[in-house]
């Protein structure tokens, strides 16, 4: 049994400071009267019932999470059935496919605003309605900072997409269709039809992109009810899980079971293991490291390599595999994956969860019946599915998912028998995504099948929020010759729905003085996966000269901010390896108790 340190009595409810505080009748009356005005009674507000926030991330601006407008009704019914009172409120929208310049810009803004709401209003606990990529980390980061009893519930993936008898997965199909479009195989109309087919219902991306990843990891962390993350949005089980989630948060308030009781170092280590086994997104280290920082658990990109790299890929889901969210759910979802990992001795079974039991008790023996979709640990889809953390003169940290390296790539770059894990190449450098789009087909760049493409100016400062642009498509002449991928390195991010073997999240970014800022088109670089190194092959003296030149120019140039928030965030944001958190926020921990 997992509980917080003390059982709470009705007199110890936090909301009583607002609604029933005889020491301050003036303020109590003021708080009370306006919450009575829509029909709540004094008996409800002063009746010593937990007041539970429902953090609503769905709206017309957030199609991935929009189904939460319906699900929140079931959450509310669960809260009421368990003796609580539900207060639903809106969160700042973060729609991955709608927000410019990039949705990730708003993760920290949504985090900040949710912290203010959770701290400043009469809430005893909160249900976090998560889904689209950044909504999940933003909510969990805020829950960590405030440390009120909290439980997250995913909106669930869309149903499978289909086009002409083939599964079309969100995002992943775009990367494939854009290659076919560039190769002249399909026209504009077919391009649009294929991509639209991948979004057949309510819900978030149906691939193992960042949304499926982050919600699976919220469950692995212990912050969502077991089995909840993978339920497709339109399935009846999703509404039932909403009801159970509402019921459970009320109990968590009485148990005083808070994020700090659940998000322990062991739980984060479980998350890293789970991420490799599901084939999770390269965005996960950024967001998980951020959540860990806000709850005060040390976690680094070295931990991701040390704990996760050797773990095999068990889930056969796009982009790394073949299937989509419906098959994954029917095969057992995350509990079936954790059961495999437990049997292999890779999970800290005693890590607590919001369900009130340990992750071991929740998942042990819940093996899948469909071994095509969730593989046994000893017959995985791929070995070593975790991330490498590379370092060198190019950057202090960058993530690489080696399990997605294709046979073709391997033959071209890694086929030196004396050193099969190292490759060298000439680089072509792009300054941001616009520069790439303008120049990629420029013949004078001499891009061939052994060129390495560099994307810089795409980190948290250079392209505020860090753009998902590192997986660059080769020039169309190469695509027409059948070369669909070149190695890409960059200080930006890559979509979780892309299977490219890029080296990304490079920190520090060019705009923060990282080594990428010193590169010039035509330079050669060397990547050695055994040594985890990434270096510029030019002399130290030349590097020093370039560094001095860059500093004399005032550093790597980047475009001006277009909004106040872009400017504010740029002035105080950490690098991707550090979770892209806001530096001044770090001194605020567990604020609900202070
Ligand atoms: Fe929202 Fe993928 S775009 S989940
Ligand atoms: Mg994305």
Molecules bound to protein: FE2/S2 (inorganic) cluster, magnesium ion
Order of strands across the main sheet: 11-10-9-13-14
**How many angstroms does the end-to-end distance come to?**
28 Å
Estimated helix fraction: 25-40%
Low-confidence stretches: none
Structural class: alpha/beta
Approximately what portion of the residues adopt beta-strand conformation?
A: 5-15%
Overall residue-averaged pLDDT value: 95
Radius of gyration: 24 Å
Shape: globular
Main sheet overview: 5 strands, mixed
Number of E strands: 14
Structure annotation, total helices: 22
Would you write up a description of this structure?
The protein has 594 residues and is α/β, with parallel strands linked by helices. It is 36% helix and 12% strand. It has 22 helices and 14 strands. It has helices at 16-19, 25-36, 42-46, 68-81, 107-120, 135-146, 172-182, 188-197, 210-221, 236-255, 259-262, 265-278, 284-295, 301-308, 325-330, 333-343, 359-363, 407-413, 432-439, 476-480, 540-552, 564-572, and strands at 51-56, 85-90, 125-130, 150-154, 161-163, 166-168, 387-390, 397-401, 422-431, 452-456, 488-490, 503-507, 524-528, 533-536. A 5-stranded mixed beta sheet has the order 11-10-9-13-14. A 4-stranded parallel beta sheet has the order 2-1-3-4, with helices on both faces. A 3-stranded antiparallel beta sheet has the order 7-8-12, covered by helices on one side. Strand 1 (51-56), helix 4 and strand 2 form a beta-alpha-beta unit. The two termini are 28 Å apart. 57% of the residues are buried. The model has no long low-confidence stretch (mean pLDDT 95). It binds FE2/S2 (inorganic) cluster and magnesium ion. FE2/S2 (inorganic) cluster (FES) is lined by residues 64, 96-97, 132-133, 170, 204-205, 209, 211.
